[in-house]
Task: structure prediction
Amino acid sequence: PQYAVTVKSGLPSGCAVYEGTEVKRDGDTITLVVWNSMPADPNVACTMIYGIAEHNISLGSAFESGKTYTVVAGDRQVTFTAQ
Result:
């Protein structure tokens, strides 16, 4: 089976946009690093509206059935057992 995780990340202003997610795997631990971007021009005016981006991130299918894995994103972590 294919595995995926839904990631929500904060966008600290109206100019911030979700850039992508880097997936790093080290044995049984999958670490997600979420990247947001801002305009390079420091003179761009941005609203002070906090937003949230939600994305489904594929973890692939290279998981051993019956084995427990940990997914870490920021200060959150969740475990799952592969089927």
